[in-house]
Amino acid sequence: MTAPGTGHQDPSAEVLTEAAVAFGLESDVTGLAERVGGALPAVSQHLTKLKLAGLVHSRREGRRQVYFADAAGQTAVVDVVRLLVGRLAEREAAAAVPARRLRGL
Known about the structure:
By secondary structure, the chain is an alpha+beta fold. The chain has 4 helices and 3 strands, in the order αβααββα. The chain has helices at about 15-20, 30-35, 40-50, 70-95; strands at about 25-30, 55-60, 65-70. A hairpin with a 2-residue loop joins strand 2 and strand 3. Helix 2 (about 30-35) packs across helix 3 (about 40-50). The longest helix is centred in the C-terminal third of the chain and has 26 residues, at about 70-95.
């Protein structure tokens, strides 16, 4: 199905399910680092920047710091993901078009 107003096909159900898992609503730093395959300090720094930007919030649960996106943060994240998916789809479509050969070369 084509996404309204974009001219692009919606991702498959499998891709959407995988994305939903990857963008879980809340997790601690260790869990996020394991899911994305990133180093714990790097993931922690990224979360700090996202928190400063107001895209995620955190709360302390014992010794763990749990990060989550509220409704406003989820909307912003979804907008960023849509933009990224759209650009990736455009790149993929452009790569699928065979390059024209110049005459005489």
